[in-house]
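Quick question: what would this complex look like in 3D?
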Amino acid sequence: AAKEEGGNGFRFYSSEMNARAVARMDLESNLRRALDEKEFFIEYQPQIDLVSNRMAGLEALVRWRHPQLGVIPPAQFIPLAEETNLILPLGEWVMEQVFLQCCRWHANGLANRQVRVAINVSGRQFDQADFVEMVKRLLQQTGAKAHWFEFEITENVLMKDVQRTIATLRQIRELGIHVAIDDFGTGYSSLSCLKHLPLNRLKIDKSFIADIQTNADDRAIVSATIAMAKRLDLEVTAEGVETEGQYGFVYQRDCDEVQGFYFCRPLPADKVLDACRKHLDES
Ligand code: C2E
Ligand code: MG
Ligand code: MG
Ligand code: MG
């Protein structure tokens, strides 16, 4: 309302609620500026194959280097970017950057290691009628190969309109891009729908891994989820593995891959090839 009255509106805000709205407005214009000023950057977290002990994949994770506030994690700006639709240009920027980065890596030695790179796709992006067209265009423009990539999509996004999801996933899969269901267990998957989705991978949310050693319920959930994923012919990744005990638990239950601080934190792009050559590729 204050906006409509002209001026900058600030003097109309007095309550705490309005103060928060102002802070949000500020963050929103900050986000817009950040996109123009190229303040975002991408880190990559290794995903380790439990059988070979090698790096099987990398997940691209966006960060914001704010000139005053320092590095801001995605949990603090992705939700707002989604609300304001800024996720569309941001998500496209991330995808383009990752595609370009992978072209450079493949020119420099990642090719023979068959490391797949995962990109998070938000609901807003996935819902765009021209999402697949956008992906195709970026592949063409950058020269990146579809089979290098996997899209991570959360279960609520996938379950929203299952018929449409199936059609879109088929198009993505036809391009040669793999699809993972992200944060599995935190949303509302219908198991009967799950079996109809053309997925490649299920990622168990880190909240179930966190207390695996002290909480019998979490152990039961993780064991059952791994078993179900295998029955459905999906690869399964445990997220947020921080300790040897957590690693041992999912290893014993035949989980395919782990991602977590126990093995490696998200890395700046220029550290990835080294990590790949050194401790993650010795076997
Ligand atoms: P996510 O897709 O589930 O990504 C995994 C998150 O878990 C990352 O947090 C990662 O740093 C963190 N993580 C990995 N291993 C461990 C561990 O052992 N312990 C703990 N405590 N955390 C671990 P991050 O980078 O802060 O990202 C948070 C979320 O932001 C992501 O969750 C994803 O939903 C979203 N996000 C990140 N980048 C993008 C992006 O480019 N596009 C979209 N749409 N969302 C993104
Ligand atoms: Mg993810
Ligand atoms: Mg996740
Ligand atoms: Mg595997």
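Answer marked as accepted. The chain is about 45% helix and 20% strand.
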